[in-house]
Amino acid sequence: MSSFKKFTDFLFSKQSLKYMCTTHFWGPVSNFGIPVAAILDLKKDPELISGSMTGSLILYSLVFMKYSLAVQPKNYLLFGCHFVNEIAQLGQGFRWAKYHYSDKEKEDPKLIKN
Question: Name one GO biological process term (predicted).
């Protein structure tokens, strides 16, 4: 039996189709828009980053990573979604902090604190 045949048999099995028709599957899949947007925003001007929104999304993803493992059955797809979002938002947070606190001192020597 070829590996492609095994994969298609698994994908179209009753158990897989039943899982794909639940919110346990579609919730995380639709939620992946948030980390995808954050990853795409990593190339945009850091002046556009909202520090408060980035901080909120960092906390949001931490809470839902914990929640995804607290429910029964554990939702590893939801965990993965929020893990990717956590990394992307932390990247945005570092870019925001660097832009607002580090880069300004290099541009204007008057802003350097003694």
Answer: pyruvate import into mitochondria
SS3 for 35?
A: helix
The residues, ordered by sequence, that sit 6+ positions from 84 with a Cβ below 8 Å of its Cβ are 32, 35, 39
Q: What's the whole-model pTM score?
A: 0.71
Distance CA 52, CA 74 (A): 30
> Is 61:86 a contact under the CB 8 Å cutoff?
yes
Is 1 part of a structural domain of the chain?
Answer: no
- 65 contacts 79 by C-beta, under 8 angstroms: yes
The pLDDT tens digits of the residues spanning 20-74 come to 776 667 777 888 888 899 899 999 999 999 999 999 999 999 999 999 999 888 9
* Cβ atoms within 10 Å, residue 105: 12
User: CA-CA distance, 26 to 20, in Å (whole number)?
Assistant: 7
